[in-house]
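Bench notes, afternoon.
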Amino acid sequence: MTAVEISPLTRKLLAFVALNDAELALLEQLHERRRSFGIGADLVHQGQSERAAYILSAGWVCSYKIQPDGTRQIVDFQVPGDFLGLRSVLLRTSDHAFEPITDIQAAKVQASDLINAFSLMPRLATAILWAASRDEAMVVEHLVGIGRRDADARVAHFLLELGSRLALVGMGDRAGYRCPLTQYHLADALGLSAVHINRVLRRLRETGLVTFRDGQVTFGDYRGLVRLADFDPAYLDQSGPLLK
């Protein structure tokens, strides 16, 4: 078993397609330009024109947009196994930025390498398209959360989604998961103030549903939290491989 065969990206893609040895070898080639990045150093800048993406192997990243008044809206958080800046491969410029929240490891993938991989291995291309479509579905769900869910349901839904995403790559389960996000990160992502986030987390903790403390999310009543958030994970499409 190669290192990439058990990598987070491979674990994730295996939820959609049973990869063969040739496809695994090509994935290994896409990981060749791996390097480390420190906290706060943007991998991709908003407006950047370089046609390249990254595969996140370790650590956490946030994707965000800066508004004209200087405020920041976090679009999403990326965890191991996610692509960063995949749209930059086809679009002329990146429409948002990516910033490491922790020290990370990521492999740079040039547009030419990715397009060549797609032409050689159509099933692998389909699996990566699945991953991109899943990311888009999560953004849609986040828009619904900000527009229609109250604060408690919004935070609960977000924590449940993160747990499901991390479980897919072997980094979480229904007991909980490690999480480096601060209340300010949650505020910028969920359209709430940090003070409001603090109050919501306290209510969720006091009712025994979930505790988020010292970088650890612990589910006290997973089913109760699902009911509060009306959480249906179908949009995450993690029920098992569709392609054999």
